[in-house]
Specification:
Layout: E1 7-13, H1 17-28, E2 32-39, H2 46-59, E3 67-68, H3 84-87, H4 109-119, E4 124-128, H5 133-141, H6 145-148, E5 149-155, H7 171-174, H8 177-185, E6 190-193, H9 195-198, E7 203-204, H10 205-213, H11 217-237, E8 241-242, H12 245-253, E9 264-265, E10 267-269, E11 280-282, E12 299-301, H13 310-317
Parallel strand pairs: 1-2, 1-4, 2-3, 4-5, 5-6, 6-12
Antiparallel strand pairs: 7-8, 9-12, 10-11
The structure holds beta-D-ribofuranose (BDR) and calcium ion (CA).
The site of calcium ion has 10 residues, from α1.
Length: 322
């Protein structure tokens, strides 16, 4: 696929180990044309996330892709300090990347998104793999944003499975429920990639070894980060492996992987202060009828894939799919 036919993308992320894998995937995929990246506080602060992203781009020799620092705090409240127990103190599992010599843009992530949306009116795809603060701020700044956007793919939520940060809520949504509620209520077509599917596609030690054995700088760095990530997930799966949340959303955004069950249904976000705060309430009551689409619903909730994801991820990053 040429750059002209590849999906023009704005990526919003909180880089983060699995965010780094999503960046590695998108840089390697011929189906993605990464036009700009915004950072947001989540796994790490927005400032650290931008720095990690710049370093990854420098490692790949892609300093041409602009990076903008986004929101430090969620719409309500303050940044909680991130998830060093999951992603390490530096957000990328303690892997030391060579510091990039280029800097983030002066404009904010929300401003970068709006500018790219205007420059690529009707064509730009948003891929959001962190809390949705920047996207909500962009909607506030430019209420016409949905008309300028082709599609938005979001890693977040839990439809029929437990959350991961509370029993009810997934981290990206829980870190800014007000933003998620605004983004899911906006007038655009959304693909939601929740824990239902991301926890089901496990990245094993054998896949990590394939990355490490490829002898490529990006694959080696990502394989190193995964060593840290696997320690956290050992508690969940009982062995050295991990979920692969953000790269899975990236592959779906660019059409790199085929969907299985993925109904279009209404989804609400719990913004109360009770135990359900941050839960995504997807209307899947018709599951016994095979998950039919709901009339007028614009949120496609991905519950399963039609194929295995981890081999596709490895092969794309090391270049055997291209
Ligand atoms: C999501 O939360 C973050 O920790 C990950 O990067 C991913 O985007 C998974 O719940
Ligand atoms: Ca993320």
């Amino acid at each position: 696929m040429s750059e002209q036919t590849a999906v023009p993308l704005y990526l919003d992320c909180d880089t983060g180990i699995d965010d780094a894998l999503a960046v590695g995937y998108l840089l390697a995929s011929t189906k993605a044309n990464l036009l700009g990246i915004g950072s947001v506080s989540g796994n790490v602060s927005a400032a650290v996330g931008a720095r990690n992203t710049l370093d990854l781009l420098a490692l790949a020799g892609r300093e041409d892709i602009p990076v903008a620092v986004g929101a430090h705090n969620p719409l309500a409240g303050e940044f909680s300090g991130g998830a060093p127990h999951v992603h390490g103190a530096n957000g990328i599992g303690g892997v030391e990347l060579t510091a990039a010599t280029h800097d983030a843009l002066a404009e904010s992530a929300a401003e970068l998104l709006i500018r790219l949306a205007r420059e690529n009116a009707g064509k730009l795809h948003i891929l959001a793999i962190g809390p949705l603060t920047n996207i909500a701020k962009a909607l506030e700044l430019e209420p016409n944003l949905p008309a300028l956007i082709d599609h938005i793919t979001i890693m977040g939520g839990a439809a029929l499975v437990p959350g991961n940060i509370t029993p009810a809520a997934e981290a990206n949504i829980a870190n800014d429920p007000e933003a998620a509620a605004a983004v899911l209520a906006a007038d655009w077509d959304v693909t939601l990639v929740p824990l239902d599917v991301t926890m089901a596609h496990v990245f094993e030690e054998s896949h990590r070894q394939e990355l490490l054995e490829a002898g490529q700088p990006m694959a080696t760095a990502l394989g190193g980060m995964l060593g840290y990530y696997f320690r956290f997930y050992k508690d969940q799966y009982g062995r050295e492996c991990s979920a692969m949340h953000d790269p899975l959303a990236a592959a779906i955004a660019v059409g790199g992987i085929e969907l299985g069950t993925a109904p279009r249904v209404r989804v609400a976000v719990d913004t109360t202060n009770g135990p359900g705060r941050g839960a995504t309430i997807a209307d899947l009551r018709r599951r016994h009828l095979g998950f039919p689409d709901q009339d007028g619903a614009r949120i496609r909730v991905v519950l399963t894939l039609a194929e295995e994801f981890s081999p596709h991820l490895v092969n794309t990053i090391i270049g055997s799919n291209n």
